[in-house]
Amino acid sequence: MKNYILCFLFLLVSLSVFAQKQWTLSECLRYATDNNLELKKKALEINLSKADKTQSYFEMVPTAVAGGSYALVNGLDYNYNAGMYENARVANGQLSLSGEVTLFHGFALVNDVRAAHYDYERAKADLAVEQKNISIRIMVKYIDVLFKRDLYTASKQQTEISQQQKIKGEEIYSLGGISNAEFLELKAQFARSLADEVSYKNQYQLNLLELAQFLDIADAQSFEVASPNLTDSSLSAILPDLAALDANSRGQFPEIKSASNQVRVKEMNYYAAIGRLTPRFYAGYNYNTWFADNGIDANKANNDPTRMYPSYSYRDQIDANLRKTIYVGVSIPILNKYSAQTARTKSKISLKYAEHSYEQVENSVTKELTSTFLETTGAWSNFQAATEKFDATSASWEAAKEKFELGGISSIDLGIARKNQFEAETNLINSKYNFILRKKILDYYMGEPLSL
């Protein structure tokens, strides 16, 4: 019985520890990399491109086809031995082995191999693009959860302060120090603070749930994020020069690599289409033989030239009737419904489209880097201003509390001072996390991993 109790307690402790697990940003990113369905689909696309790449090499390998047949004929059939048709019941068969290889076709097959290679690289870059986008989205949601949690914590502190003011106001009111209207105002301020706390709590829980659902975590109800060390004093605005940022950060944009590889794919497709307009030189081989139960040995070297089946066995007939052919040839496209010319025209248009798309990606990256840099510098300025405003309103709030306790101001003035202080605090929290988000994205573009 004692062992059962110990096991039960151990189970409760284990469940409690599991429920209290707090996810860091790195753990969220790692979990998404391993479990996100979009990333898994992109990985499958890489496998498909790899299979196409392998197949492109095999397109240059000679073909080899072996075949055979065996038939029972009852009626009129051609007798190869007699050189005429006969009405008989005959069993016969055929065996064959053939193949062909393209010797030269305007480098079309070689360019197909190159196109498949660049398409494989494009698929890998697309996976990196998806990983980048998902990672940034997770970080945005993670920081938004921290932001809402800090707002919720600040609102709880305001509720506690408001409750303390209400209690003190009740004492002063009982002694006749304030009017009934002022006491009711203190109670109203506490009710508004409590309502704000509930609102911020709901926002925090909703954002936490959205992050868990985005990660596809099964037990979203017990999901919780860790609290990184993000004190205001630890924040700094050490930013790179914009020109250095633009020069050194393009490697962190797999969109550029994807678009570049897409241009190479279309370029190789265009060259392959041109190659298919040229003559195709090829070589081939063919081995075939036949056998029948009415076969006659026509080899004059034998003692019995009229030897027939079964003494003239199928094996002997296969050896005697074997025919070997080796050939070379050329195929010149003259009139093929204009399909090759149309393919060349379409591939040229696709190449131009891919080049324009690459230019768009380049411009988009430049705009993204510039806007992120300017947003980061602006966010730092806002954070500094919000810090100064918070310090000033906090000092004003402390002075207002002392004046209220001494009867120097009314509860309405006290409420205004507290409201200004809370607004300054929420503005400070907002500007703080806005700067952290912009700075982390900027660091990521400079090659640093996403972390808090």
TrEMBL record:
<keyword id="KW-0998">Cell outer membrane</keyword>
<feature type="signal peptide">
    <location>
        <begin position="1"/>
        <end position="19"/>
    </location>
</feature>
<keyword id="KW-0472">Membrane</keyword>
<dbReference type="Pfam" id="PF02321">
    <property type="entry name" value="OEP"/>
</dbReference>
<keyword id="KW-0813">Transport</keyword>
<keyword id="KW-0812">Transmembrane</keyword>
<keyword id="KW-0732">Signal</keyword>
<protein>
    <submittedName>
        <fullName>Outer membrane protein TolC</fullName>
    </submittedName>
</protein>
<dbReference type="InterPro" id="IPR051906">
    <property type="entry name" value="TolC-like"/>
</dbReference>
<dbReference type="GO" id="GO:1990281">
    <property type="term" value="C:efflux pump complex"/>
</dbReference>
<keyword id="KW-1134">Transmembrane beta strand</keyword>
<comment type="similarity">
    <text>Belongs to the outer membrane factor (OMF) (TC 1.B.17) family.</text>
</comment>
<dbReference type="InterPro" id="IPR003423">
    <property type="entry name" value="OMP_efflux"/>
</dbReference>
<dbReference type="GO" id="GO:0015562">
    <property type="term" value="F:efflux transmembrane transporter activity"/>
</dbReference>
<dbReference type="GO" id="GO:0009279">
    <property type="term" value="C:cell outer membrane"/>
</dbReference>
<dbReference type="GO" id="GO:0015288">
    <property type="term" value="F:porin activity"/>
</dbReference>
